[in-house]
Automatic annotation (TrEMBL):
Domain of life: Bacteria
UniProt key word Zinc: no
The protein, known as: Intracellular septation protein
GO cellular component terms attached to this protein's record: plasma membrane
Keywords: Cell membrane, Membrane, Transmembrane, Transmembrane helix
Membrane-spanning intervals of the chain: 12-41, 53-73, 79-96, 116-141, 147-170
Pfam families named among the record's database cross-references: IspA
Length: 184
């Protein structure tokens, strides 16, 4: 579990750095510049250490440089604020692959209710698209405080709530199936 959180922190380091610097300075341009420098430093550090970089790290670097550069060039924060939406769209598209979730679930779920696991995978894809649309809508306002709240509370909270709902639903569905099989 610790490695999962470390990987997520690594994948979203530039967004985390951006938020921390923005809250400390209340300056979008400084936060953007530091986020770009941090993303570049992260890649350089990993390469020096001989670590392989995942697709998300490279994609994040490209997005930070392009969207951060557009923010610095135009003095318009909406470019860099849209970055999380692009990530959510990409992840949602990947989640449209039938059965993607099955490899992440315990055998009792995959053997007992595989059709619900597949349906949940599509629901997660839909959630990613909805969260991306919300991110774009909030970014379009250019309101930094609203955006910071959205990415740090709403995005995280929606995923935690979805996970909790899925966990409870799977427990109920598996239990119901097993009881029905025992009666038959």
């Amino acid at each position: 579990m610790k490695s999962v959180f470390a990987r997520l922190a690594s994948d979203f380091l530039s967004t985390i750095v951006f938020l921390v610097v923005y809250f400390a300075t209340d300056n979008v341009l400084i936060a953007t510049g530091v986020a770009i420098a941090g993303a570049i430093a992260q890649v350089v550090y990993a390469r020096v250490k001989g670590q392989s970089l995942g697709y998300m790290t490279w994609a994040s670097l490209g997005l930070v440089i392009v969207l951060g550069g557009a923010t610095l060039f135009t003095n318009d924060p909406r470019f860099v604020l849209a970055k999380p939406a692009i990530g959510h769209i990409a992840i949602g598209a990947i989640m449209l692959k039938r059965g993607w979730m099955l490899r992440y679930l315990p055998p009792i779920v995959t053997e007992t209710i595989p059709e619900y696991a597949t349906l949940a995978g599509y629901a997660w894809a839909g959630l990613m698209f909805i969260l991306a649309a919300g991110t774009i809508a909030v970014a379009a306002t250019g309101d930094m405080k609203l955006w910071a709240f959205y990415v740090s509370v709403v995005l995280v909270g929606a995923k935690i709530a979805a996970f909790a709902i899925q966990y409870v639903a799977f427990r109920v569905l598996v239990g119901s199936r097993l009881r029905a099989a025992a009666r038959a």
